[in-house]
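Hey,
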Amino acid sequence: MAKMWAGRTSGETEKIADDFNSSISFDSRMAEQDIKGSMAHAAMLAKQGIIEEAEADQLIGGLEGILSDLQDGSLAIDMTAEDIHMFVEQVLTERLGDVGKKLHTARSRNDQVALDLRLYLRDQTDDFLDLLKNLVKVITDKAEEYQDAIMPGYTHLQRAQPVLFGHHLMAYAMMFMRDYDRFTDCRKRINVSPIGSCALAGTTYPTDRFFEAEKLGFDSVSLNSMDGVSDRDFCIEMMSCIASCMMHLSRFSEEIVLWSSWEFKFIELSDAYTTGSSIMPQKKNPDMAELVRGKTGRVYGDLMALLTTLKGLPLAYNKDMQEDKESVFDACDTLEMCLKVFTGMLAGLTALTENMKEACRNGFINATDLADYLVRKGLPFRSAYKISGSIVAWCIEKKKVLESMTIDEYRSFSEVFEEDVFEAVDLQNCVNLRSSFGGTGKDSVLYQISFVKEWIKHD
């Protein structure tokens, strides 16, 4: 394909230089955004009298034809083209002749690529918002399904206090709701039109940047043309949002890996989202969760790569900025796949509630409640803490749990113990009494579920 920029130079470059310089292998995914941006540009040129209305109609019709042909497969993208912008313009010129050459009036590839990238990431953000909302719904449904299941809550990966499984799940719902808010906020800064900034200094043509931005659904236009073509903050912010979301998916994945192991056996994953071993027939591996956990590091690398690329660039556009797309596209693709797979995996999860409850009994996670019982009987907390710790040590030695002790055994540690101690160490009571706002009591968890359901319905 002939070089559209031939003139100052012969336009003849070595094949290895062409291959090194080319970006069409990855920016071709922005074909639809590029064509829609060009259609708006043609309409603006006609509105301002820069080209004739009839010429704009030809350009828009030609662009619509190219988009339709790409979508139905009758036109294939030429991978020898330099980039998607040059490919579309070349095909348009082949089809329309000299009229096609007028499309690039009053714009540069510098503002054109910035426009395409913003349009693409805006669409991608909307997809993420839908996927996150669906994930939060699945988490909430699962929390409601297991609203009565008691499990050990952990600190330092040591059994700490009893919580409802639904309470644990809703903690992740809160994380993904914050991710939703971050993407929503990021979208505001993506949705700023750079088109009309041209190469870096604007243009002498009487363009209407606001008209073009409005046709493309932008909220505003960039105020500085040099910033318009060189800004990639929106990519960094988008990838930061992706990294945070992947971090949350990774934390959840780690727990799923642990919970599904024989050592915990708190959950059973669907066969549809697990794999087996090539030599060990008893294995059921949580590979999807492990891959989500592993791909998180990949996304972190994408973010660091772009930050490093941008850190030393002078204004305005530099070819280094072509490196933004592979990183941001890879991060987007990774998160999209992880959200879809993780949501499906979670929907098929079964909680093994009796195993969870048994782990609570054996872990003495009602010891804090025992100490609180003694405080209510008038003992200072530190004295109550010491007595409770001594009882736990004795139980471990005697292979007992707090619920299986007799009242005489309790009274051998303190005379303040009465029959109501058994209510105090009952796991169900331990959970239900944590009725503070945001706590693990059932009423609190049901409120959280109700709150999130309303958020899903109205956000």
